[in-house]
């Protein structure tokens, strides 16, 4: 493409909407996720977060059990050490938590950050709860707080182009390291 063709393409794009400084990476394969199918869990009987506490820590990927909530590794992690903090009770909305559940989820989240820092020395964290399917929750029926360790330069094009995420350790190895460091 010539410089003039590049400018024409840019002009066409800008005339389609208000220009901004964002680059766009189109991912049409994600439409299947957006249109549905991501949240098949409706009740406690088919909820992985209700089932996990009934398994051994190793089988359930659990790193800590509290009175009202627990922490486990995400089965599909964004990064090595990606934890989820869940109430035992099957509840979907943050506003439906009891005060005791709210406090313990916050305490477990803080402790998770401390433990992950001691084990793998991340440069930062992403913390968050996705509320409802439209809010991005893969399992909207059971509230869970994400604790995602981040390192400078850990985001790359692998997940977009190759549909692959490079995770440097197995879930079992990471679970053992975090569980041992929790005490």
UniProtKB/TrEMBL annotation:
Substrate binds at residues 74, 146. GO terms for molecular function: hydrolase activity; nucleotide binding. It comes from the Bacteria. Keywords: Hydrolase, Nucleotide-binding. Residues 48-157 form the HIT domain. InterPro entries: AP-4-A_phosphorylase, FHIT, HIT-like, HIT-like_sf. This is HIT family hydrolase. It comes from Neomicrococcus aestuarii. The lineage of its organism: Bacteria, Bacillati, Actinomycetota, Actinomycetes, Micrococcales.
């Amino acid at each position: 493409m010539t410089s003039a063709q590049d400018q024409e393409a840019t002009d066409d794009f800008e005339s389609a909407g208000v220009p901004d400084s964002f680059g766009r990476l189109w991912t049409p394969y994600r439409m299947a996720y957006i249109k549905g199918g991501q949240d098949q869990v409706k009740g406690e009987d088919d909820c992985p977060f209700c089932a996990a506490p009934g398994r051994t820590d190793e089988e359930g990927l659990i790193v800590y059990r509290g009175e009202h909530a627990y922490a486990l590794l995400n089965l599909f992690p964004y990064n090595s050490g990606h934890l989820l903090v869940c109430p035992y009770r099957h509840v979907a909305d943050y506003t439906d938590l009891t005060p005791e559940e709210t406090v313990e989820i916050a305490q477990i989240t803080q402790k998770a950050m401390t433990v992950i820092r001691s084990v793998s020395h991340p440069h930062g964290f992403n913390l968050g709860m996705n509320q409802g399917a439209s809010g991005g929750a893969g399992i909207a029926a059971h509230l869970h707080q994400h604790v995602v360790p981040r390192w400078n330069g850990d985001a790359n094009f692998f997940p977009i182009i190759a549909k692959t995420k490079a995770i440097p350790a197995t879930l079992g190895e990471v679970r053992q390291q975090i569980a041992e460091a929790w005490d």
